[in-house]
Amino acid sequence: MATAEFRVSARKALADPELRANFRRAMDGLMSRRADLFARAGDWAGLRALGAAARLRALARLPELLERLEAKLVERGVRVHWAETVEQGNAIVGDILRRRGARLVVKGKSMVSEEMHLNHFLEGEGIEVLEADLGEYIIQLDHETPSHIIMPAIHKNRRQIAKLFFERIKGARYSEEVDELTALARAVLREKFERADAGISGVNFAVAETGTLVLVENEGNGRLCTTVPPVHIALMGIEKVIERLDQVPALLALLTRSATGQPITGYVNMITGPRRAGEKDGPDEMHLVILDNGRTRVYADAELRDVLRCIRCGACMNHCPVYTRVGGHAYPGTYPGPIGKILMPQMLGLEKVGDLPHASALCEACTEICPVAIPIGDILVRLRREGTRADSRAVQGAGARRSAFESLVWSAWAAIYATPVLYRPMVWTLTRLGGLLPRGLPGLRDWMRVRARPRFARRSLHELARRAGLPDA
Hints:
Elements: H1 3-14, H2 17-37, H3 41-60, H4 62-75, E1 79-83, H5 86-100, E2 104-107, H6 111-116, H7 118-124, E3 128-131, H8 134-141, H9 158-168, H10 178-195, E4 198-201, E5 205-207, E6 212-217, H11 221-227, E7 231-237, E8 241-242, H12 248-260, E9 267-271, E10 285-291, H13 295-299, H14 315-318, H15 323-326, H16 337-348, H17 350-353, H18 365-369, H19 376-386, H20 404-418, H21 420-433, H22 445-449, H23 461-467
Parallel strand pairs: 1-10, 2-3, 2-4, 4-7, 5-8, 7-10
Antiparallel strand pairs: 5-6, 6-9
Helix pairs in contact: 2-12, 3-12, 9-10, 16-19, 20-21
């Protein structure tokens, strides 16, 4: 999605009262439940410090930990694949499935697979893909992408889901009862689990010390994707690795409480390899695909790499005044909300999504609520600056927002303020005639569309000082 489309999508979302009501209702509930669980400030501060330290330590030793993770997994019979780009990642998954003759795949929730547009790729290969997470299944039926990284269908209300199931599921009757809607989806999914040739999942944390893949979920669909089909393919970004198993409890507590306001999720899966002799369930074959997709470029900058701390809880979205009004589909790229504003420009380039860092009030609500203390506000400001720095190589597309006209204006401003013979007549003119500036003046039109009209003082500070008998330095 181009930057111009983001502006159009945001305006369209703001004009949709049902969408805004859906988000307001959902966000209020999520924020309230989270606040209840972190009611004691000391608990929040201590747990947050543990989580941030674990993620910072992992990033500081990222290359080493990734190699340790690979070695441990290979010892346990897992085949590890490295993909620099989404194209390479898709090719790896496609090769595995073709070799196994897979025609039906059940897939758990995975934001990395959304980065890869994996469903679209596999369908082009003639492989049927069914989303097993209820929210993902809903948006798959409606041919949409996730609107939230934790709750993909949060933008829909019960009536909309009931209508969708009635229209898209064969033999379904119209009902707005939550239990009946859930049972209907379960009946479809269970039949597919039994016949699936392979299962695909994401990874919440990968423990280098033990070679353990941690998968968190509420519905049991993730467990079915990873244990029932004969092949399990796990997908993760390079930043998901952590050093030790004893760091998992703090990170899990932060993730579940921040994401959905739960003390713990329904299922926490600790996966260490394919089925071993004597075990009753699990895949015959297991693969892990580790995706870069621009992350090493982000990692190379000491300030920007902080975005890789993210544990994908979605709390920054739930508390963001921009996201909660326009929803996830207004944002270009895979990740919406504050985390998307600092990650997508680095993945896709500022020339494509350079407006995202500016789609923020810099209120710092996202920074205050982040469970691993990512300085989101600082990174937003840094990316705004990178957008006008043509000499920078830190971010793809740096300088894309640089305007020759704007540069000329600032150069003229600097020259005027440095030269008294120019500065004084300019100030005299603005104090007398500044109020006559037309609203449609190029460069001011958009600025004044959302701000009060500038009001100039009737006399300059120098004039007031002289009138008061003060020396004019």
